[in-house]
Amino acid sequence: MSDNKTKNNQETWDCIAESFDKTRRKPWKQCIDFIKTLKETDFVVDMGCGNGRHLIPCAEQCKKIIGLDFSKELLLIAKNKLLKKKLINVNFLHSDVTLIPIKDDKLDAIIYIASLHNIHGRENRIQSLKELKRILKNDGKALISVWSKWQDKYRKLFFKKWFINKDKSEFGDINIYWRQNGLNIPRFYHLYSKREFVEDLTKAGLKIEKIESVKLSSQKYPDNYFAIVKKDKLLFKL
Fold first, then answer.
1. CATH node for 3-237
2. Are strands 90-94 and 43-47 parallel, antiparallel or unpaired?
């Protein structure tokens, strides 16, 4: 990812961190269900951990946790929450998810929730998935989620773009404004189709064990895709 885009993304999430935290307190059921399948001895990384809403249940379930994010402000919020709960088995890592400073084959499990879609450029998104694969053990597993472009809120917009795409952006790219607490700050998103999500996971060398379309806020059409993946061992040996 270019330095400018990375810097802009960091500044965006640092600016909205406090406001964002107020609206993202409850962990998602899909994440809790996945975390409950992990062993007490597992070493887990939360890629794009944000304000730590899924770090806490991970820390309560497993032996060793790393919360990774490129927003220093969100990491500070997450750290304070863990301290209040006296959970001391979590370390924090300020890092870009396309180049993670963790050695190969170290993680028993990874959660990568609602963060992949904030990366500019398909090549960079796939690179982040390759990094996930690299640091995951051969028998490890990961839960990954992205927003759907065909959800209720953006469905008409992307149908229109399907026929008339006047700019050079990737189909699915959109700026979504954060307007809580008097703010008006654009956040970059690349919203996925299910097919594209499957293609990117596969291209990164990940084997999909389960993928589901979920309605978290939408009433009619799914707004999120969740996938449980492992390393594709055939590709890993090549």
1. 3.40.50.150
2. unpaired
